[in-house]
Each structure stands twice: as structure tokens, then as C-alpha cells.
Amino acid sequence: MHSAATSTATPTPYVEPGAGDGAPHYRENNGSRIAGEMSPASAAEAKKEADRIEPVLKALWQAGTWDPKTVRTALLKLGYQEQPNGPLVVRQMDARFETDHYVTPEGAVVSLRVHDDACVIGFVQRTNYQVKATGPYPESGCFEPPFAH
User: Is 0.85 topped by the overall pTM?
Assistant: First the structure.
């Protein structure tokens, strides 16, 4: 007696590496929102700078002072230099669409170019603050681009 083996496994659709939620065109649709890779040495230096910036943003958040001018002044005291395109840029938060209009929240966003392949980005606002080391974004440099889809 001969029996044929049957397979009940169904093929899985291709999911490209780094596809976030697994959507087939994730990287294509979100390419501008995916940070570039950092070399290990650049990542270590960016982490070091993030560790210097984090306590400053935390103290400003705790004090309730998160306007761009105050944040800029505090970060310049760490020895950073500000120019229109870096290495340090401090500006108001991006406008967000709420219900039926755009609102610009109180707070500041920060970017620091550490190397060509490494940045520190952060923000401080009424509800929270954050600092992280990241590679640059293809279209917006060190600033994380707004959500597009």
C-alpha cells in the first residue's frame, strides 16, 4: 500500500527584512522615516552625547520650562554650537492635526549632528521628554520626519 504525503502548510507571503509590522511595502512607504545605520564607533559617541543631553531635558521638564529659547540656552551651556543647519538645532515642535485644525504644542525639539552617520534627537514638552541616539533620516537629516501616511 502506498500513501502520498500531503502538506497542510500554507506558504507565507514574503516579508522584507526590517518591515516593521510586516506590511509588504513597509520600507518603500516609510523609507523617509527609517533612520540610517550608524557605525559602532559613531553609535557609541552619539550615545555619550545623548547621555549628556538627557539630564538637561529632564531638569527642564521637571521645572516646567520647555520653550525653545530656554532649551537652546541650557544646551549651549554644554559647549555645543548652534548654526542654522547644525550641529545643534533647537526649534519649536511640529504642528499636529487635531480634530479639524493644526495645533503647535508647547515644547521644543532638539537635534545634534554627532557624525555624518550619527545624531542625537530629543524633545521636551508638558507631558514628557525623550532623548535618543539615531542615524540620520534620508530626507530630513537628524530630525525625525513627520508621519506621512
Answer: no
